[in-house]
Specification:
Layout (H helix, E strand, L loop, with lengths): L22 E2 L2 H13 L4 E7 L9 E8 L3 E5 L8 H6 L4 E4 L2 H9 L7 E4 H8 L6 H9 L19 H12 L1 H15 L2 H13 L22 H21 L3 H4 L2 H9 L5 H5 L7 H5 L1 H13 L21 H4 L1 H21 L3 H4 L2 H9 L7 H10 L4 H27 L2
Parallel strand pairs: 1-4, 2-5, 5-6
Antiparallel strand pairs: 2-3, 3-4
Helix pairs in contact: 4-7, 9-11, 9-14, 16-18, 16-20, 19-20
Keywords: Exonuclease, Hydrolase, Nuclease
GO biological process, one term: nucleobase-containing compound metabolic process
Pfam family, one: DNA_pol_A_exo1
Length: 416
């Protein structure tokens, strides 16, 4: 990897080698794609396009595959119950995916799961590249510009425009080449084993679980004061979610977060007053005004025992900004642990959050093992989900640092 800044010059646009492929949207086309993929050899580049800004949920509306010797396939999953025949054709192939954690869940819903994985974004992070987006990596390593004009379009639209299909095919056009370059770079830096462990961790990770109180993620909720206003947010969020699911629309397009906050913080005496606000002037918000007003009524009428708690129930330590008051000793441990991880990350030229997840650092600092010897700290890190390479790099320095904090606390507590 070059340490010099990128040379500022015009790069040629990346173009498709084989032209824009036809969409695979019939059983006959799918069978032909499966035969071609099964007959080819080597890794397969994989990508998926979602429409989360337009539709409810995170399902894939297009699946892109490219395998040397087979070419590129753009599969429309909507006509098919699942894509298990594709999975069987690729049962032993290594998947090359950029930012795999984003795409693997929606691909798994279609019956597509990798047997092996190479994540080009994660590889770039471990190799120390400052910019790890696909377009940035294509420019840095291959010298091409990758057009990202269609990154946020509505992929549920049918038929898909040719320019969108070309964009989608380009996303898998270069992944095999990127994989080879990054594999070589990781090997040169002595980080390939780390990457293999990280890829396997991503590949085998369980599906992400939704937080119990998802309504607390409404943007702007910090403006809400008191449990009654929180109840309005909760009831409106659930009403919106039900309606969005029924309409198969992105919840934010049914009713914006700003509308929910406005309804919670305003003192509206009538549905007419609510309808007069700019946040409720858009068509979907206005169309279902009765539902929103009923939700506000439920929040207003519920008893004290039914009101939400001021803060969410947290599985784990409290937010770090409260540590100095709740537990000064834990705050001191966290400060030292973060410093140790940051220094090690800088030494090995990778982001601190990839060396050791911030949540792991917080939990270790909040509740360290009774014994702070190297073995005990290593065991605690493994229990918290750290991979072997991470434990090998961090356990001993963290144990040493935490022992220093413990000794300082002991001296402070026994001093006259």
């Amino acid at each position: 990897m070059s340490d010099s800044p990128l040379v500022a010059k015009v790069r040629p646009h990346l173009s498709l080698r084989d032209g824009t492929p036809d969409v695979v949207d019939t059983p006959e086309k799918l069978a032909a794609a499966v035969r071609a993929l099964a007959a080819a050899d080597g890794p397969v580049a994989v990508d998926a396009e979602r429409a989360s800004a337009y539709r409810y949920g995170h399902r894939a509306y297009l699946v892109q595959l490219r395998r040397p010797g087979a070419g590129t396939f753009l599969i429309d999953p909507l006509p098919f119950a699942n894509l298990r025949p594709v999975h069987e054709a690729l049962s032993t192939a290594e998947w090359i995916v950029h930012a795999a954690a984003q795409d693997l869940p929606c691909l798994a819903e279609l019956g597509l799961r990798p047997a092996r994985l190479f994540d080009t974004e994660l590889a770039a992070r471990l190799a120390g590249y400052p910019r790890v987006g696909l377009a940035a990596m294509v420019e840095e390593l291959l010298g091409f510009r990758l057009n990202k004009d269609h990154a946020r379009v509505d992929w549920s639209r049918r038929p898909l425009p040719e320019s969108w299909l070309r964009y989608a095919a380009l996303d898998v056009e270069v992944l095999v080449e990127l994989r080879e370059i990054l594999h070589t770079e990781l090997q040169r830096q002595g980080k390939l084993r780390w990457a293999v462990e990280e890829f396997e961790h991503v590949r085998t990770a369980p599906p992400p679980s939704s937080p119990v109180e998802r309504w607390r993620r409404v943007s702007g909720i910090h403006q809400v004061r008191g449990r009654r206003q929180l109840a309005v947010v909760r009831e409106l969020w659930h009403a919106r979610d039900r309606r969005a699911r029924e309409l198969d629309m992105s919840p934010g397009k049914v009713l914006s977060d700003s509308a929910i906050i406005r309804a919670a913080t305003g003192k509206f005496r009538s549905k007419k007053e609510l309808a007069a606000t700019p946040e409720f002037s858009a068509r979907p918000a206005r169309e279902f005004l009765d539902e929103w007003w009923d939700a506000i009524g439920r929040a207003t009428a519920c008893g004290e025992a039914e009101l939400p708690a001021p803060t969410p129930n947290i599985d784990g330590p409290p937010p770090a900004h409260r540590w100095s008051e709740a537990s000064p000793d834990a705050a001191a441990r966290l400060s030292v642990a973060k410093t140790v991880v940051a220094a090690l990350a800088d030494e090995h030229r990778l982001p601190a959050e990839n060396l050791l997840a911030p949540d792991v650092v917080r939990r270790l600092a909040w509740q360290p093992p009774h014994s702070l010897d190297d073995h005990a700290v290593a065991t605690a890190l493994r229990r918290l989900g750290a991979r072997p390479w991470q434990v090998g790099l961090t356990a001993e320095p963290l144990a040493k640092a935490l022992r220093r904090v413990e000794l300082h606390e002991l001296r402070h507590s026994t001093s006259p």
